[in-house]
Amino acid sequence: MITTERLRVRPATMADVDFWVRLHADPEVHRFVGAYTQERAEVRLRGIEDSWAARGYGLCVVESLESGEPLGRSGLNWWDEFGETEVGWTFAREHWGKGYATEAARAVLDWGFRDLELERITAMIHAGNDASIAVAERLGFTPRREDTVLGNPCTVWALDRPQASRRR
Q: Where is the N-acetyltransferase domain (predicted)?
């Protein structure tokens, strides 16, 4: 579990299925990441639990530290197709514009570089997702290549591990 000034970032589990479906039900939220039925959410969350067991990381639910309310999701996702670890962020629309995505993703990146010793973390962002592009730029990501993710064109942004967190 990761804690920031305002947020708790914890592994997503099967217990989060209802939240997962609600989060992705808003057309403005699922425009770039897709909607989830109950069944699709269960499959996705099982995969996330498997990732945590196999790799020691996966996607997370981001909660308000003050209220415990789930606000969105962030975390790290391994892509076999690319041989890369991606950081992601998706928040309920009522929580947009409050800096939660940047705060959560920054904490996840710090953890990934420092504790997991990842050398590079990507962010796969679909064209037109200006809010995510702004988050990626605030975090120091730069565009590296154009690619296709789940049948959709995107720009793959990347951030290399800072020198300060490299082992000597």
A: 7-162
